[in-house]
Design goal:
Elements (H helix, E strand, L loop, with lengths): L2 H19 L3 E6 L1 H9 L8 E6 L8 E7 L6 H5 L5 E8 L10 H9 L8 E6 L4 E6 L3 H7 L2 E2 L2 E8 L4 H4 L3 E8 L4 H8 L4 H9 L3 E3 L2 E2 L12 E4 L3 E11 L5 E8 L1
Length: 258
């Protein structure tokens, strides 16, 4: 059985549980592929429940889903305040400025070496000499007690209240250039310094996502504010059109995350 079909069956089982037992059911953290499958499932799959997504903060890429029965008398404000079982952990080296430079891969590898599945972990946000990790609440104490080093660096892991605002809006590189039109293939080629044909290959291979949804159409028109992710290459925002050239090409501005 294909992985996509297995995922859909798992979602259907969770939806059925929420509906029949009349309580909110929460999933693990879904990655971009899984979120795309979830968004692509027919509305009939979710009859009797509402689907709410949350990854811990507004910029989260990995997200947990809640299937909430329609029988719950939640208004829109209540739905927004629905409490997800997500904990935020702060990982900070104990050696201060003498700490070696640690990467996303270093931190994630250290956490998963505790025998933890990736699905119970959300986004990992890296600062200058610290990291913040969203995780399923029931795993928080285990990670805090077990994660005492990353590579050769001693660390302390504690629960935190929120991610510092400056880390939620990481540095970006401004890219400007001209494209024949504001299509996904043209913008992807410009932002990731690819040929247009290579950008089209990335799209057709299912490695390109717009606003967390997998896109297979290279001709998709983009809107200012759209977030484009290419697996293995990074993420950027289509910021705005700037002007038109005499030859009818569009000058655009992109913001690529460093």
């Amino acid at each position: 059985m294909q992985a996509e079909e297995l995922f859909q069956r798992r979602v259907n089982d969770l939806v059925k549980t929420a509906y029949l037992k009349n309580y909110a059911v929460f999933t693990d953290f879904f990655d971009l592929n899984e979120l795309n499958i979830l968004h692509s499932m027919p509305a009939s799959s979710f009859q009797g429940v509402r689907v709410i997504l949350n990854g811990g903060c507004t910029t989260s890429e990995r997200q947990m889903a809640a299937f909430v029965p329609d029988a719950f008398s939640y208004g829109e404000n209540d739905m927004q305040s629905l409490r997800f079982p997500i904990a935020l952990l702060h990982i900070k080296p104990t050696a201060g400025r003498f700490t070696e430079k640690l990467t996303h891969r270093d931190y994630l590898g250290a956490v998963m070496s505790l025998g933890i599945e990736r699905s119970v972990l959300g986004d990992l946000i890296i600062g200058e000499a610290e990291a913040f990790l969203f995780a399923e609440e029931e795993m928080a104490d285990y990670i805090c007690s077990g994660l005492t080093s990353v590579k050769h660096t001693p660390v302390k892991t504690v629960k935190a209240g929120e991610v510092p605002e400056e880390l939620l809006h990481p540095e970006t590189e401004e890219i400007t250039g001209s494209v024949s039109s504001v299509r996904l293939d043209s913008i992807t080629a410009l932002g990731f310094r690819l040929s247009r044909s290579k950008a089209q290959q990335e799209i057709s291979a299912g490695r390109v996502f717009v606003n967390s949804r997998q896109i297979l159409s290279d001709s998709l028109g983009l809107k200012p504010g759209d977030i484009i992710s290419v697996r293995g290459k990074g993420k950027m925002i289509y910021d705005s059109p700037l002007s038109s050239t005499k030859k009818g090409r569009q000058m655009v501005k992109l913001l690529k995350f460093k």
